[in-house]
Amino acid sequence: MTLRPAAPDTGILFERTDLSNGARLFPARYDYVADTFLCTTLKNASGATLSTVEHVMAALSGCGIDNALVEVSGPELPIMDGSAEAFVFLIECAGIVECAAPRRAVRVLREVEVVDGDKRATLRPSRLRSIACEIVYDNARISRQRAGFVMTSETFKDEVASARTFGLMEEVDGLRANGLALGGSLDNAVVVNGDKVMNEGGLRFHNEFARHKVLDAVGDLALAGAPIIGAFEGYCSGHALNVRLLKALFENDEAWCWDSGAATATWPELPLAATA
Ligand SMILES: [Zn+2]
Prior knowledge:
This protein is α+β, with helices and mostly antiparallel strands. Helices cover about 25% and strands about 30% of the residues. The protein has a single domain, classed as lpxc deacetylase, domain 2 (lpxc deacetylase, domain 1), CATH 3.30.1700.10.
C-alpha cells in the first residue's frame, strides 16, 4: 500500500494497481460500499471490490486528511496489527500539507438514527465532532464497555489509533472453518478466550474493545466523503449500521448541510471529553 497526495476536492480515492485501467479506482464513499460482513468492502462500477478499507480511512480521517490517493496492489488493505497505528505512522512520516481551498464539512442539522434489533447508531447536531461507542458482549472479558471522545487529530492518535480489532476464540475457529480470517493471528487481532486475552502483553487500553469500535466508526463515517460535524453514538453498532446511518443522513435533505470556510477553520481543539 502506498499513500500519495491528491488535489483539493479529490476526496479519498483508492487505486488497485493489480487491475486494468478501467477497473482500478474506488472512491471512498458510502454509496460504493458493497459489503459490511467482517469489514467494509468497496465495489466500483466495473464490479471490482476492495476490502478492509475502514482502518486506513480511520487513520486518514483521524489525522484530518481530506484528499489522498491510496494505491494498493491487491483486493484488500493490509491489516497490520489490527489497528490504525501503522497508517498514522506513515502519514506522520510523510507530513501533511494544508490546501488553499476552503475545507468542506457535513454539518448534522437533525437527529438521525438507525436501529437493528438491539443495535443502534445515532448522529445528532453538535458544534463538535464526537464519537461514542458502547458494546455489550456475552463474554466475561469484554462484557459491557464504553469509549467516547471529542475527536481531534491529537485525541485520535493518542487514544484511538492503536486500539486493535478483536474476536472471540470460538468465532475465529468458525471463520477458519469457512475459509475466512486465514491470515488472522495474535499478531493482527486481540483474541479473547473466555475471560482471558490470549495475546502476550494483554490489552493496550482497559477498554480497547470499545475504543476499536470508535476507530471503526471514525473510518466508516469518513465514507461521507467529508468530515462530519456532529455527535455520533453507537450502541452495539458495526460497519453495517454505520453505513446505513450515512445513507439515512444523506437521504434526508433537512438533516444536514454543507459547511465550509470560516466555520470549519475555527474547529476547536478540545481535550479528551470522556472515557469510561
Ligand atoms: Zn476494525
